[in-house]
Specification:
The protein is built from 25 helices and 17 strands. The chain is an alpha+beta fold and 656 residues long. Among the domains are: 218 residues, Glutamine Phosphoribosylpyrophosphate, subunit 1, domain 1 (4-Layer Sandwich); 80 residues, no CATH class; 74 residues, no CATH class. The strands form three sheets. Strands 2-3-1-9-8-10 form a six-stranded antiparallel beta sheet. A hairpin with a 2-residue loop joins β8 and β9. α11 runs antiparallel to α12, α14 packs antiparallel against α15 and α21 packs antiparallel against α23. The N and C termini lie far apart (53 Å).
């Protein structure tokens, strides 16, 4: 269903609708190595202040844009490219609001809701209770407010353009239009694991382009200045499991409902992963309740497991219980393995993405789903992060319910004395972060570095890959030290809540990068578990009940009881990705070696190709020693993708 924009007047309505709704991208044959620019032909937007200087900044962005929405003054407010069915806009007097993304609100309803606001402090009332995942941009009395989602699936970035602060949905839009150079120190820090240390993820790879924290909004004043303001805070985890499960159930049903809308500008068919795991299976059963036609996709992997426990066995059982859906299966020999499709990469990536290892398989799956008529694909990303609780909840629990905490510790069979010492430790997040910076090295981590008592701390100390140069280690240490010097607070004061939200945001950032690739091919992605309302519902439950030992994802299974047949809620845990990692490494080791033999990361002094080659050789190198390969590959491919831009950032990579 496509909604037009609200009227500014009978004669201007059609003009506004045309300017604000560029034609949606035409689905193309999937190829993630397709060149191009980071902005032209792909969804993005920039937000401008309502002043003369803002109008000048718009002039720098207009060559990249095909859509414009004006301020009440007539100056440009939003510029960019966006599909018509992803935008809702309403105007009332000097106030207007735009919702960009997946949200079931209609223009009529949005206009009615707009009557509730008198100034920028009231803006959240406009979308109160609405499910989905979207940006919210508002202008009231010449002041502008923009925010993304708390999950980091929708982000906002800021930079100085023509002397004023401009916000945008993509960092590379601002990096390109300002000619920003790459920040090599931050790039070195991107060799660290995804969840290395909050707020390392907020450090931008483009100098002068900074991310707005997902729980903050950006306020743009008419004079071009800007301030940050918190718009979202995690809930207090006070609900018992049964009560919290009802909230999760309602939020997840609404989230999936916002995807399965039964018709759109592209069609009336949605698709969903059916891996055989609990998270994706639950989404398929929820999506099957909607009015849209459902196509499921199962990829056969290396997980055979004990008799009857393999993913394919469970996926077939779920397919049989969903007779009205169409079920696609990709055979083990049909799905490209990890690290395929990386030779001669020319895709324009916003930032380094660990998902680049899945380039070929994403293209393969997208091709089949587009052929099946899907206009939106649902993925179970975020389920593990929200519902598999880290043992760090014991650090908080032992101070409130010591007997319960000790019983959980015993049930988890954690090392007794080492765990008790960790439980007694009281380091603040800032102190822990400073320790991470001071102790950062490139020495290989022991195989059990991320288990046992370390799970009770703020996180495992991050380590650089063994092939990082001394220059790279020092650069990353400097970035971490600079962040630690500001003594940033944790995302939540309780360690388990902090860990859950950090993992959810990391998953959200990854999903956002994957969707940028799939949208380019013609198929948007959605992760209902990462909708803000679902995250908020999950975080509202007591962590020791969410993470009760001996139970697998008790919050999710309780929430889905009655909607998903019970046998699927009780399936055994899945195996990890090790088998797929090694299969991809065996298949593409030669291509990886060739890629890094002419490495741009090596040219700027961040990696040692010989050390990387040594780590990857041998019949089966230790997994913990080569796990950082995805991050290194992400940075390498991103550097190479810069040559596909119309305007290459001013980074002298050839001079090292």
């Amino acid at each position: 269903m496509t909604e037009g924009l609200s009227r500014k007047g009978a004669r201007s309505h059609e003009r506004d609708r045309h300017r604000a709704c560029p034609a949606p991208p035409v689905p193309r044959s999937p190829s993630l190595t397709g060149g191009g620019t980071p902005v032209r032909g792909e969804p993005w937007f920039a937000v401008l202040p309502d002043g003369a200087a803002g109008a000048a900044a718009a002039g720098a962005l207009r060559p990249w844009a095909s859509g414009v929405i004006d301020h009440a003054s007539g100056r440009p407010w939003l510029v960019g490219e966006w599909p018509c069915d992803q935008i809702r806009h309403a105007r009332a007097g000097s106030a207007q609001v735009t919702v960009l993304g997946r949200c079931p609100v209609t223009t009529v309803d949005l206009t009615r809701r707009l009557d509730r606001i008198r100034d920028l402090d009231d803006v959240e009332r406009v979308v109160a209770g609405l499910p989905g995942s979207f940006h919210l941009i508002a202008a009231v009395g010449g002041r502008v407010r923009v925010r993304g989602s708390a999950s980091a699936v929708r982000r906002v970035f800021q930079a100085q353009v023509a002397g004023v602060t401009v916000a945008a949905s993509r960092s590379d839009v601002l990096g390109t239009v300002t000619g920003a150079p790459v920040d090599e120190e931050v790039l070195a820090a991107r060799l660290l694991p995804h969840c290395a240390a909050w707020p390392l993820q907020e450090a931008g790879v483009w100098r002068g382009v900074t991310g707005v924290p997902p729980d903050h909004c950006l306020i743009l004043e008419p004079d071009g200045t800007a301030t940050l303001r918190r718009w979202w805070s995690p809930p207090e985890p006070a609900l018992p499991l049964d009560e919290g499960a009802e909230a999760v159930r309602d939020a997840l049903v609404a989230a999936v409902g916002s995807c399965a809308k039964g018709g759109s500008h592209y069609g009336d068919t949605i698709s969903a992963d059916l891996s055989g795991g609990l998270d994706s299976t639950a989404l398929c059963f929820l999506a099957g309740r909607g009015s849209a036609r459902l196509v499921t996709m199962h990829r056969q992997g290396a997980d055979t497991g004990p008799s009857g426990s393999g993913d394919t066995v469970w996926a077939r059982r779920a397919a049989a219980a969903l007779p009205n859906a169409r079920h696609l299966t990709a055979g083990r020999d049909d799905v490209p393995p990890w690290f395929g499709g990386l030779t001669d990469p020319r895709q324009a990536l916003e930032e380094p993405s660990g998902w680049v290892r899945d380039t070929a398989r994403i293209a393969y799956v997208t091709d089949r789903l587009i052929a099946a008529g899907s206009y939106l694909h649902l993925t179970g990303v975020g389920g593990d992060e929200l519902f598999s609780v880290q043992p760090s909840y014991l650090h908080d629990l032992v101070r409130r319910r010591p007997l319960t905490a000790l019983a959980h510790l015993r049930a988890r069979r954690m090392p007794w004395w080492r765990s008790l010492r960790a439980l007694a430790e009281r380091d603040s997040h800032a102190a822990w972060l400073a320790g991470c910076a001071g102790g950062l090295s490139g020495e290989p981590a022991p195989s059990n570095a991320y288990g046992d008592a370390l799970a009770l701390t703020w996180g495992a100390p991050p380590r650089m890959p063994v092939w990082a140069t001394g220059q790279a280690v020092q650069a990353a240490r400097d970035v971490l030290s600079g962040i630690a010097a500001d003594e940033p607070p944790p995302l939540c004061r309780r360690r388990a809540q902090h860990a859950t939200l950090l993992q959810a945001r990391t998953a959200g950032a990854g999903l956002r990068q994957v969707e940028q690739a799939t949208v380019r091919l013609g198929l948007p992605y959605a992760a209902p578990y990462l909708d803000d309302a679902v995250i908020e519902a999950a975080l509202s439950v007591r962590p020791h009940e969410r993470g009760a030992p001996g139970l697998r994802k008790p919050l999710l299974t309780t929430a889905m009881d009655g909607l998903v047949p019970r046998p699927f809620l009780a399936r055994p845990p899945r195996s990890g990705p090790a088998a797929e990692f090694y299969a991809g490494l065996r298949r593409h080791r030669t291509e990886l070696m060739d890629l890094f033999s002419s490495s741009l990361l090596a040219r700027i002094g961040l990696i040692d190709p010989a050390a990387l080659r040594a780590a990857l050789t041998g019949p089966r190198p230790p997994l913990h020693a080569v796990e950082p390969l995805s991050r290194t590959l992400a940075c390498e491919i991103w550097l190479r993708s810069l040559s596909g831009r119309e305007r290459l950032p001013a980074m002298a990579i050839g001079g090292h």
